[in-house]
Amino acid sequence: MVVEGALLWEPTDDIVTRARLTHYMESLGRSGTSYEELWQWSVDSPAEFWASIWDYFGVIGERGDGPVITGTMPGAGWFTGSSLNYAENALRHEDGTALVFVSEDGARQEMSRAELREEVARVRAGLVRLGVRRGDRVAGYLPNIPQALIAFLATASLGAIWSAGSPDFGVPSIVDRFRQIEPKVLIAVDGYHYNGKGYDRSAAVNEIAAELPSLRATVWIPYLAAAGEGRPPQRAEPAPAHTITVPHGEVIGWEGLRAEPGPLEFERVPFDHPLWILYSSGTTGLPKPIVHGHGGIVLEHLKSLSFHQDLGEGDVFFWYTTTGWMMWNYLIGALLVGATPVLYDGSAAYPSAAVLWRIAASEQVTYFGVGAPYIMASQKAGIHPEGLERLRGIGSTGSPLPPEGFSWVAAELPGIPLGSFSGGTDVCTGFVGATMLHPIRAGIIPCRSLGARVESYDPDGRPVVGEVGELVITSPMPSMPVMFWNDASGERYRESYFDVYPGVWRHGDWIKIDEDGSCVIYGRSDSTLNRGGVRMGTSEFYRVVERFEEIADSLVIDTGQLGQEGRLLLYVTLAEGAELTDTLTGALCAALRQELSPRHVPNEIHAVPGIPRTLSGKKLEVPVRRILLGTPVEQAANPDAMANPEVLRHFRP
After folding, report:
1. ∠316-319-321 over CA atoms, to 5°?
2. pLDDT tens digit string along 137-152?
3. 270 near 83, Cβ under 8 Å?
4. Beta-carbon neighbour count of residue 459 at 10 Å?
């Protein structure tokens, strides 16, 4: 076991001097200010802070003469009277490499900023020919390929609204999302590669289009077919057999969409004009269509990428993601700060578990981000990353990273800080994270992000320090949703975040915040373990269990209900060749008793073939708990929002 809080890395004077956050503090005349003092100012004086972000980065647009912030949560307004466009700010940098694309089959493509601007202009012209105007929705059923980024920027340039889903999503899952927003255009691939196999999605695209009567056009990208023919997809036309059954609107290929050059123009829109629509996981109900605005995302991503990831011109940014996870939207924000995003389409485990580290090395990545499970899998697989001389930072998100993950990175990549970040789709950023000014300690998130007033509330709604409580945000942030689509009254929005503490955003995680502003996330508060009146997060439980070489994955569920003690059940997926013997069961129980408490010892331990996860890799604790309490499997979770729905049946009581 690695001691939580063990010091693993400290910034040198040179690192602090060169940090972009240091330059920002100097520009404010706050050179001698500590980070915690700067954070306090940023949340006590939000109008002054966010105005400084606009000015410091020279945001392109009209500031207007209205107040920076009006009203309170929910429904605070920002930069009244201002106008801007995300795409105009993302494409402002004219020199250098705009993006790098790498696919699982070894294909690689670079695109210069001039080439990206030309492609965006062409696709923009194509969308105009299809009748797309300001406020219309354009939907993408696309993997993480350049065409997804190009189509998004073209959509945003018009003031139209982008929404994407990954082609590994099932048809019902995509229809549940896109039918809510009534897109005018659907842009889709005929298939994709994953884990060494090709997956034809042409039939799925036809089914999706058939369920979207709002479509004026379907644009096909013959990605799978072109890869088989050794051609870039923009030069191939869709096969007639693929498109014959599309029932709504015209059908064209990507080459037809981008066929004609056009002017690269930008429709400047109000600060809160919808930019894109993201979705909640949809595992337990219809996915919530979360709308973010142009201005909030521009300011938040400029601030977060520059000051918390320390990214700027000349940097190469790689975060492993699909278009169905908010980290794709965060990754492409690299364009805003002049950095180069690396787009990767493929598995994180093919042809080996080291593939992402190898891409980070070959592309000379300066900041590399992954989900926490990948770091733990790398440790278990005995990977030794090499060739990362340009790497200056590593990011981890998606779920709490145990201290052992921090320690492994520190041992394998000495001198490289690992910043654990936590936030969510709801705000499309991390509201707790790291900077280059903070030391890195095992299992600890160093700070609350600038402009994010994150607090920990006890059961009575009072802020606490040094105790585990509900993670809340008590002041508005510009990247909070401007609305949910089709929620004119705002009722669904208010119920999602403000139903427990009026006027305070409840995020649904357990957090402990210490005096110095550092914190630890303990997992979802709605999947809490409550044993003998003591509340326990699941992350510390997984930390102990998944340290065992015999355990590949695990899930812990407390079946207790209000006023009634339940059973504590541990489900484990065994590593190849391992068996759930009495010896292993005894060792697990002994470790939990000794390293946590007797309350953590499960009543039962069961082996299952897999742990249910969302498409973005999060464990489905709440749906499994519902199944154990009697909810039918088919009602507990939406299988199309899951990576492995077939395993749910193994959790029947």
Report:
1. 140
2. 999 999 999 999 999 9
3. yes
4. 8
